[in-house]
Amino acid sequence: MDWKRRRTLPSSSVKTVAIVGGTHGNETNGVHLAKHFMRNPALVKRPSFETEVLLSNVAAIQQNTRYVEEDLNRCYLLEDLQNDAKSTSTLERKRAREVDAQLGPKSSSEPKCDFIIDLHNTTAATGVALLMAPNDEFAHEVAHHLMSLDETVRVVEWNDQADWPLCPSIGRSGLTFEVGPCPWGCLEPELFQQSRRLVMALLDYVEKHNSLVASGSPTRQEVSMKVFRSIGVSIDYPRAGEDPVGHVHPALQGQDFRELQEGDPIFMTFDGEEMTFDRKAHKVPEKYERVYALFVNEAAYYEKKVALMLMSCGEATFSKLAS
Amino acid sequence: MSLEFGLNVWRLGSSRSPCRSRSPPGGFGFAGGSSSASFAFRETALALGIPSAYFCVVRPRVLMRSIKRVSLVGGTHGNELSGIYLVRSLLRQPSWHDFPSLDIDCLLANEEAIQLGRRFKDCDLNRCFSKSKLQDLQGGDERYESRRAQELNQRIGPRFSAEAADLCIDLHNTTSNFGCGIIITNTSSPNLHWKLQLCHFLSRTCPRVRIVFDCIGDCSEEPFLPLVAKNDLTFELGPQAHGTLQAEVFWNQRKLVLQTLDFLERLNSQTLSDEERSEKTLEVYIHTGVVHYPMRSDGSLAALIAAELQGRDFEALRPGDPVFQDVDKGDTIHWDEPECYPMFINEAAYVSSGIAFQKTMRCELKIPELKADGSLSIIELPSLN
């Protein structure tokens, strides 16, 4: 698969957009935002493209749980979707095939959906973080626009790898709306309203992009923007066997996107002892002079043994049609 | 029972005033004498020509027996983490030698739910302990929590029996902005007396303590786990997202637990200070009802909590204040019932049953002095009209 070619190029118009809620069944703001759009299709309708709204992990939504058998948002690797045995092995694997058929398929260089917005919530204080593939130029362009409307919006790139098991990767282009802090199962009013506004602004931007394409504008411009990138390092809780014996230090709690410096407190044990950030002990490669914390105290990552992830910060450049 | 009856014999006409005469609901058979009864007796005796020098008025006096057996429970809900980690931490390094008069049983209630990282596996464990459910459950309900409730009833209880633990402390978290909540479900006197003195003590040592009475009167059909013991306390701390552990919440809950054990130790050894035993007033919130989200005919939520109400647990909600916001139209819905003090605003676990928050009534209670001889008083509770 030529992934680069498959991406929506800045000079193509967008014909279908999908808004997906409930990839994790207990990320309730996203579920209710999708349901709100399903009840009010006029809000997400635009003249030049179709908008589809769907709930992906319906069984998990009904049970108010992240997943029933396995994490749906780890089921979308192409090789897994094409593996008949694997892709029918669990409830979520079967559902992934259905969503893939509806919005993709990933195996096709002409997927049905040009842009996927996957709505998520996190217990970490990410604000509105937009997560996307490093080489997805159109997603970067859209995110750049949303950052200009709301300075709390930040962009995080997925790891640079051949394929991703994540929902937005089924379509040509797409991104994850990761909104927090929001507890599982809760509707958080301010975050709900903020993400609603930003999703509608995103659709307005796609409409504007399509107008530029239709007007035959040939001019392109290079834009650069600040992005955070995973450096492939995460830090687990201090444990005794399987059990955590400490918690995120109060000085770090809620400090997503903050720079972590040598000696900064990151954990406190249940006996009150502080544990600090140590680049060497935490295996931070030397080439990353400055690192930043992300997904600090995300509930779903306790089982994945991640208390926080480390990011680097840099510039991404993309080209877009000039208006 | 942590009470014993003693006989109080004194001279008529003494300055000693009897306890209040209000009968406790679901009471212990305590029959407190009133001053008017002893006056009538004296007048009758005099009329019969009996010398007034020494008349005995035999009146039962309720004395507090020591609290000995305490159950400390975490993980009744498997995703409410501070209690789970606190119990594990205490089991690894117990400090029970600091409380020699207490026999402390520290346990995790719902290990299966804890493993799953969910509130429960089959059904909510904290709804399994009403009188009728405990009787039903002997019929062989196969759900995990139903069977576990039977085990816990044997270990901590049995409920309603003389063998039950003296006190059960149940550790919980909520996504609502509850602060350091102390919930008492069995609010009957006279045990309420020492519990309120304890609550006042805790409110001085921990931040944002809120005392909540969950039930007035007969609580035998209340289904909560700590009711298996003779006395119940629930430490409900928030806000904390389920599945996460917040430093402040963990340390405050730990403080509530250790300060409670310290108070009980000193109560047992009669070494509470005069100030700790003195008469006081205390603000409490009495549960009066539940408020549901506006719902659509298909059963989905029509509105969410208004931004102006989010996080305002235990602040007055008055007629005209914003309470909900319509999800589709964005219109604000205003409160049109009498003033109340809401709690559990936007508790995640209640969303699926459509509960937006619970209402309480705020009141000030007078707590009489806890006498050095251990006698307890009836606490007057307001009527809930």
UniProtKB/TrEMBL annotation, chain A:
Keywords in alphabetical order: Hydrolase, Metal-binding, Zinc
All copies of domain AstE/AspA barrel-sandwich hybrid, residue ranges: 225-311
Protein name: Aspartoacylase
Domain Succinylglutamate desuccinylase/Aspartoacylase catalytic: 14-205
Bias (Basic and acidic residues): 91-100
Family indicated by similarity: Belongs to the AspA/AstE family. Aspartoacylase subfamily.
Cross-referenced PANTHER family: ASPARTOACYLASE (PTHR15162), SUCCINYLGLUTAMATE DESUCCINYLASE (PTHR15162:SF7)
Highest taxon in the source lineage: Eukaryota
Gene3D superfamilies membership: 2.20.25.160, Zn peptidases (3.40.630.10)
Necessary cofactors: Zn(2+)
Region (Disordered): 87-109
CDD domains associated with the record: M14_ASPA
InterPro entries noted in UniProt: AspA/AstE_fam (IPR050178), Aspartoacylase (IPR016708), AstE_AspA_cat (IPR055438), Aste_AspA_hybrid_dom (IPR007036)
UniProtKB/TrEMBL annotation, chain B:
Pfam families from the UniProt entry: AstE_AspA_cat (PF24827), AstE_AspA_hybrid (PF04952)
Cofactor: Zn(2+)
Gene3D superfamilies listed in its UniProt record: 2.20.25.160, Zn peptidases
InterPro entries: AspA/AstE_fam, Aspartoacylase, AstE_AspA_cat, Aste_AspA_hybrid_dom
Protein's UniProt keywords contain Hydrolase: yes
Domain of life of the organism encoding this protein: Eukaryota
NCBIfam families: PRK02259.1
Protein name, per record: Aspartoacylase
UniProt organism field: Durusdinium trenchii
